[in-house]
Amino acid sequence: MASLLQNAIKITLDPDTDPILTQYIDLILPAVEREFSSISALGGDYETHYQQLKQRGDNHAAEKAQRWSDRPDQNLCVHVLNALLIAWNLAENYLSSPLSDEEKRLLCLGITLHDYNKYCHGQGEEAPKAYEVPEILSLCQEMGQRLNFQAFWPEWESYLSDIGFLAQNTQFKVGTNPYPSNWPKFAIAHSGRLTCPLRHLLAFADIAVHLKDAADIKKDPENINPEKGGKRLREHLRDLNIKKTLVYHHLRDTIGILTNGIHNATLNFAAEQDWQPLIFFARGVVYLAPLKSEPPNREALQEFVWQQISQVLSQKMLEGDIGFKRDGKGLKVAPQTSELFTPEDLICQLPPVIEVRVNNPNNLATPKRLDKLVVEKKLTPEEREYLAGGEDLRSDRLAEFLIVVQREFLADCPDYVAWILEALNLKDCLTLEQIQITIGGVNYGWYRAAAHYFCQHGTLDGEQTLELLTDLANRLATWATENQLLPQYRSPTREIFNQYLERYLDIAGWETIVPPFEAELATYSFAKTRKGKQPICSLSSGEFASEDQMDSVVLFKPQQYSNKNALGGGQIKRGISKIWSLEMLLRQALWSVRSGKLEEQQPVFLYIFPAYVYAPQIIRAIRGLMVELQSISLWKIREHWLKCGMNVNKLSELDWLSEERDMGEQARQVYDTKDLPFMATTHTTTLGKTVTDAWVYPAFLALVLPKLLGVRVVATSSNVPLYSSDREFVGSAVLDGAAGFWSLLQCPPSVRTEQLDRILTRLLIVYSLHLDNRSNPPDARWGALNGTVRDVMTDVLNIFAIAQEGLRSHKRDYPSSEEVARYWQFAQIWSQLDKTMVEKLNLITQLVQQYRTFYQVNITDSSHAILLPISKALETILSVPTQVDQEDLILQGAGLLKDAIDRQPAYTRPLLMDKSLDIATRQQQELEAIYQFMETCVRDLFGTLYRGDRALLQENRNRIKSGAEFAYRWLALQEKNQK
Fold first, then answer.
1. Where are the beta strands (DSSP E) in 505-645?
2. Which of 2, 66, 382, 564 is close enough to 6 for a disulfide, judged by CB 3.0 to 4.6 Å?
3. How far apart, in whole angstroms, are the C-alpha atoms of residue 347 and residue 541?
4. Model confidence pLDDT, tens digit, residues 696-739
5. φ and ψ at 162, to 5 degrees?
6. Around Cβ 884, how many Cβ atoms within 10 Å?
């Protein structure tokens, strides 16, 4: 079954993709995921590195482990895959002499094995030295068999020397063995092609996937850093005779959808300059450009980027989704909306917005307004009775259109009322004074005018009413423009946005503009004083001035986030900068969430970064995944994981993508309309009321996405990304402020590549244990998860106690064979957390094995029957006076247990049933077995494990019995299977 990564790549591949690459994805990639995804190519866990180095006898183990673990994570699977795709793109599109099919397959297999030393280290083995050619080839052969090379290329073993040569000599530096004479005869027809182009292609790709940022390719004219990646990449381009130069764009900030939009707009603008994207980063792109390429014009690019961003917002605003708010005083326009459109354009575009936002026929405003006019004696009862024929949704829409236009654009225009009465043919029935009646800040006169109009035109339906408003808006905009009545258009948001681009967007060939730190510090310092009137942005630093936001802009509650006010100040405002206002509006537009309501659903934000780089095919695959990724029930995840033998690698085979997804060319057309996710931003919500409910699913996603896709994920409840780049943190998964169950599980806030499998398994055990035994389907009762975690972290035997709790709740007498095996495996995995847990589980197993030698019942018998020996032993230990020494306690307990066993049917006593021995010998063996069992109970269980403390033993009595019952059933099943 195809993996998630396979599906994500395949549904976005071009239809004319070379079949060799398609075969690689179909046949080798699944094996690469299985073998490489848990091995770090870069970064990794300190303790894992240290133990591996120490095992190999390295005298500098601590120093090397620290140096390696200080680097950000990148697993070996995604390292190989990105390198292959970058090399493939370079070979397919830019080589003057194309690769043959034979060379393409060598490229694929050589780059797959190029880090064989890291594979060996991940297995705890020493890698062969560069001069040990036979050992290198033997290792390549072994790895090739594991990685399904045979299915990809049946003749691959004939090219073993060629593949080994490429794998060993990918890098052009010390530690290589590049002399063909040192290798067995190559199978390739022209052996010189191994060095150029193949070896140079591999070297270029390997350097590329080690880059941390697009700006790393900057030219170094003074040769200060000869090892700098950009210099080495240019050398390989020259050796490959590719007549292109490397350029880049780099954005020194990451806030989410807005910065993604800036990247994509810059990418589109660069395409017009014939810049071809080659390597993607969280904060930029490296391109191949013509040799004489000129840097783009700064002003033209700023204009282009603004048009791209504003187009997205404009469309959603004109659909009425964002940028407007309707309250008791009618429709209001957000400042950002007024800055995206000129007054004339906005007036013309208001009718469809009015139709969407004023759309509640069950709560009409016009009747209430007219009744108020009667109360205020501004309207006679007779006229009110007449107007009842026009007080409907149409009147609300017309009145609110007239009110919002007057309030926003023509408040100071003395001729506005007269023009509207003339346009609506109402001059004969209403005067200017009757229109200009304001109560509570609302012009009630327009509701009176609207009701009059629809009393006269009662046959107009909804569609005709929209046509009326559209015609009125166009005429009104024309009249106001011709008479210069509209306010002058100005967009402070665009001015601030251009400043943001000037300070943060860097492109090859541009002069760098350093952000004015002194001005930012002065603004911040002044805002903290009593004289400071303008608070600092709640979501960022004080670089850009903040302003109070309308409820329709921000996603969080009005007073949830206090602003950075003056010290000692008491104000609470929603002040954020215009940059963050744009981000909030974009999140509303693209996530389809209501302003101010998202926080009620306790969102957890997932910020998804590349592990250093994305190849073009990979970033497109991640884009498709972000479009199609569906929320899978943890019940279904648990079922699949258990069915696959608790193998977390098999989670990739779940149907993560939407079942209704498009395929082929139709899918590519859909995805191509979406922005590429330089840093993908998504979020989860919950219907539950607790923080635990909110974090259960995102905690799982934060671990499984790095495992399955090789990305790096930050999960947090913060609207603001914690990091502006993937180089600012080292873990594969970072969980910021996770619910209490995460710390109870003793999971670190930053999870490294080698830790993913272990922690993911631990998490799924707890989830499964909870869903099986403490849920009430369909309610998972996640609010009680902390108790489940606390129980199993306290004592491994609580796994069996919880399982029995579930049996009782489901009114069942005993577990099935599958459940026994499952819970026993849970306990074995869980006990690896702590040496004491291992000893306890082994001791319980030993006790059960000992009493099964002299007492056995059917596994379908009652718990009382199964636990007879252990129950009698515990009862004796707990009831005997404390002054009795251990030997006497053992003898007394053995005697009491022997009496109890004598009262049981003969078929429950295996030793007694052995007719090959005389009765005296059998009785003697049974007595010795009982004594040995009782001795273990007293000396090891009571004396050592529970330190001779009867109170402690009494507290753990039920846990011991639960563990013993499952151990008995598990041992019985093992014995049955062996027979």
1. 505-507, 546-547, 576-577, 604-609
2. 2
3. 35
4. 999 999 999 999 999 999 999 998 999 999 999 999 999 999 99
5. -60, -45
6. 12
3-class state of residue 321 by DSSP: coil
Give the start-end residues of each E strand in 555-649. 576-577, 604-609
Report phi then psi at 61, rounded to 5. Answer: -60, -50
Q: How far apart are CA 970 and CA 45, in angstroms?
A: 35
Q: Which residues contact 641 (CB under 8 A, 6 or more apart)?
A: 647, 648, 650, 651, 764, 768
Q: How far is CA 17 from CA 87, 97, 151, 629, 959, in A?
A: 15, 19, 19, 24, 60
- Separation between Cα atoms, residue 313 and residue 321, nearest integer Å: 10
Q: How far apart are CA 309 and CA 843, in angstroms?
A: 66
What pLDDT score does 316 carry?
86
Residues 6+ apart with CB under 8 A from 655: 632
Query: Number of H helices and number of E strands within the chain?
Result: 44, 17
Q: Token pair 């993607």 is at which residue?
A: 280
Report whether 953 contacts 874 (CB < 8 A).
yes
What confidence score (pLDDT) does residue 85 get? 97
Alpha helices by DSSP H, listed for 745-816, are 756-773, 785-794, 798-809
Which of these, 772, 702, 712, lies nearest to 739 by C-alpha position? Answer: 702
The pLDDT assigned to 531 comes to 59
657: which strand partners? 629
HSE-CB at 962 with a 13 A cutoff on CA atoms is 21
Beta strands in 229-337 (DSSP E): 244-251, 276-281, 284-290, 324-327, 330-333
Residue of 538, 879, 597, 754 lying closest to 75 (CA atoms): 754
Rg of the chain, C-alpha, whole Å: 37
Tokens 């008791």 correspond to what residue? 328
**pLDDT at position 562:** 46
Tokens of 830: 């869980």
If DSSP codes are grouped into helix, strand and coil, which group holds residue 410? coil
Three-class secondary structure of residue 120 per DSSP: helix
What pLDDT sits at residue 530? Answer: 56
Token duo for residue 24: 């690689």
Q: Are the C-beta atoms of 144 and 125 separated by less than 8 Å?
A: no
CA–chain centroid gap for 412, Å, is 51
- Which DSSP symbol is given to 40? E
* CB 674, CB 264: distance < 8 Å: no
Q: Give the pair of three-digit tokens for residue 698.
A: 């995102």
Long-range contacts of 773-778 (CB under 8 A, 24+ apart): 773/802, 773/803, 773/805, 773/806, 773/809, 774/802, 774/805, 774/806, 777/635
411 three-class SS: coil
Judge whether 30 and 11 are in contact, CB under 8 Å.
no
pLDDT at 926: 92
Q: What is the pLDDT of residue 522?
A: 75
Q: pTM, whole model, 2 decimals? A: 0.90
Residue whose C-alpha is closest to residue 153's, from 104, 90, 97 = 104
**The dihedral of CA 417, 421, 424, 429: what is its sign?**
positive
- Are the C-beta atoms of 169 and 116 separated by less than 8 Å? no
The answer for residues whose C-beta is within 8 angstroms of residue 438's C-beta and 6 or more apart is 444, 445
Q: Give the residue carrying structure tokens 């099986």.
A: 772
- Express the helix, strand and coil content of the chain in percent, nearest 5 each: 60, 10, 35
**Distance between CA atoms of 966 and 217, rounded to whole angstroms?**
61
Backbone phi, psi, residue 638, to 5°: -60, -45
Extended strands (E) in 123-243: none
Q: How far apart are CA 461 and CA 442, in angstroms?
A: 26
How many beta carbons lie within 10 A of that of residue 262, not counting itself?
Answer: 25
Closest CA to 837 of 863, 800, 807, 868: 800
> Residue 138, exposed/middle/buried by CB under 10 A (0-12, 13-18, 19+)?
middle
Q: Which residues in the chain land under pLDDT 50?
A: 221-224, 226, 559-572, 663-671
